């Protein structure tokens, strides 16, 4: 699946952190109260910021598109270009002249050529983490999207229904299931998703995920992990509560 844009839900949009509400906070291991908690003082979500020293300095880490994806696109675009160019020549012949179809073939050739050129760009990087300019750079379709670290957030993505079915079949066949990562600008209404099938290998995907989470943790803070309840302890508590309840007779009097 290519890097894709996904609309945010209303909850995701309204739950973002805005500087006019939060104010400036120095990112040195402090805690930051966000959203409703910042306005009302209620303990809603506390983000704990990591030290900025964990991030690299003055470097750019590039994550290119998988080589097999690039090769497949180049082969397909060359074939389409050749067919459309032949069609353009055909519709210029006196016996089969058609200006309309000729123009359509030319437009198709231009589109195929654009996709072919784009493969060289994504071979350089699909996603780049620019630690010098402090921004995440994405190549989405034919755009270059820049997300400042201060506005960047990331989380694990999920496949749509069709992709989920394909992923289930893939896991049954013993192949590595597809994993998704959302790269989000919190000040925009859309977020972008990439996967381990887009990037050049599982190692690249895991490294991008780790570095993206480090950036988020430094600039926006991380939410504490949910407390896990031991199932055995929970069952003991339910049994004790049931035993402590006084049983009643039909007339409403207890034993």
* Count of beta strands: 10
Work out the oligomeric state of the chains in this entry: single chain
Strand order of the largest sheet: 1-10-9-8
Q: Note the gap between the termini.
A: 66 Å
Described by the principal axes of the CA atoms, the overall outline is elongated
Radius of gyration: 27 Å
Low-confidence stretches: 10-44, 247-252
Task: Identify the notable features of this structure and list them briefly.
single chain; 255 residues; alpha+beta; four-stranded antiparallel beta sheet; 18% strand
Structure description:
It is elongated and about 95 Å long. It has 8 helices and 10 strands. It is α+β, with helices and mostly antiparallel strands and 255 residues long. About 16% of the residues have low confidence. A hairpin with a 4-residue loop joins strand 5 and strand 6. The chain folds into 3 domains: 46 residues, no CATH class; 60 residues; 87 residues, no CATH class. Helix 4 packs antiparallel against helix 5. The strands form 3 sheets. Strands 1-10-9-8 form a 4-stranded antiparallel beta sheet, covered by helices on one side. A 4-stranded antiparallel beta sheet has the order 4-5-6-7, sandwiched between helices. Strands 2-3 form a two-stranded antiparallel ribbon.
């Amino acid at each position: 699946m290519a890097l894709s844009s996904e609309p945010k839900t209303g909850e995701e949009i309204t739950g973002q952190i805005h500087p006019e509400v939060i104010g400036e906070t120095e990112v040195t291991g402090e805690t930051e109260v966000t959203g409703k908690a910042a306005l009302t003082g209620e303990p809603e979500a506390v983000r704990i910021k990591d030290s900025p020293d964990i991030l690299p300095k003055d470097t750019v880490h590039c994550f290119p598109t998988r080589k097999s994806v690039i090769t497949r696109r180049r082969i397909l675009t060359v074939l389409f270009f050749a067919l459309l160019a032949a069609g353009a020549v055909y519709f210029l012949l006196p016996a089969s002249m058609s200006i309309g179809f000729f123009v359509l073939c030319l437009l198709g050739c231009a589109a195929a050529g654009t996709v072919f050129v784009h493969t060289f760009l994504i071979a350089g990087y699909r996603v780049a983490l620019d630690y010098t300019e402090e921004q995440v750079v994405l190549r989405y379709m034919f755009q270059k999207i820049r997300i400042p670290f201060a506005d960047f957030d990331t989380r694990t993505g999920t496949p749509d229904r069709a992709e989920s079915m394909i992923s289930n079949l893939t896991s049954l066949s013993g192949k590595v299931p597809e994993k998704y990562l959302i790269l989000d600008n919190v000040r925009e209404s859309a977020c972008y998703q990439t996967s381990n099938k887009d990037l050049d290998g599982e190692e690249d995907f895991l490294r991008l995920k780790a570095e993206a989470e480090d950036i988020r943790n430094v600039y926006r803070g991380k939410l504490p992990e949910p407390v896990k309840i031991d199932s055995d302890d929970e069952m003991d508590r339910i049994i004790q509560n049931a035993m402590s309840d006084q049983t009643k007779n039909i007339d409403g009097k207890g034993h």
